[in-house]
Amino acid sequence: MSELAVRGTQTAVMISRCVRLSRRNVDALLTSLVLPVLLMLLFVYLFGGAIETGSAYVTYVVPGVLLLCAGFGAAGTAVSVTTDLTEGMIERLRTMDVGATSILAGHVVASVARNLVATTLVLAVAVAIGFRPAVAPLRWLAAAGLLVLFVLAVSWLSAAFGLLARTPEAASGYTFLVMFLPYPSSAFVPVETMPRWVRGFAEHQPVTPVIESLRGLLLDTPVGSAPAHALAWFLGILALGVVLSAVLFRRRVA
């Protein structure tokens, strides 16, 4: 069997392992599924009446909640990578000549799978409480593609955080920045309503162009240059995450 085929088989096995571990970790799974829904209901029913967005608040807030899902899923990636390190699992896998890429890809793909389930649940609840997205299939596919790319990039970066941390608790703390980014953005209030110094950050951080792209695609409104900006951020974050993961893996496991 060729080296490429061996690595492909190893990656598939690692993905299967991480997905099974996600299913068994019921507490973490429920948190990643239920917490975004609770936050959406909190914003819509407690704050929605006080925030003017020009449309029903549930329509405005859903794209931001989808990005929150990605943040929670990414935190789980960092914690699971650190747990494997501290429990000696990665060392055992390395004795069987399982490659670093296969090990980390298992955690990253499991994160994407968790986020797809959480996103589906959030969208179902959003539709139940009044969200009415556009129905054009191409726009749905484009929105799904943006979400998957965002989760993929952030999950690789979180895998690097997991390799950097010494304990699962520290790994969860390192991902706070990822979970925090949707708040100072256009996720929950229009950027124009923010103070000038906050507005500058909100307009030029990774999450805002993703949210604006999702909002335009799901509601059938113009998206402008937002998808191009979002793609540039995706590629930058993904490259950073992959390179950092490779460097940190060699340092931690060598």
Automatic annotation (TrEMBL):
Domain ABC transmembrane type-2: 27-252
Compartment(s) where it occurs, according to its Swiss-Prot or TrEMBL record: Cell membrane; Membrane
Chief location of this protein within or outside the cell: membrane
Bilayer disposition of the protein: Multi-pass membrane protein
Spans through the membrane: 26-48, 60-82, 103-129, 141-164, 171-191, 230-249
A family per Pfam: ABC2_membrane
Keywords (A to Z) from UniProt: Antibiotic resistance, Cell membrane, Membrane, Transmembrane, Transmembrane helix, Transport
PROSITE patterns in alphabetical order: ABC_TM2 (PS51012)
Entry coiled-coil feature ranges: none
Family: Belongs to the ABC-2 integral membrane protein family.
Protein name: Transport permease protein
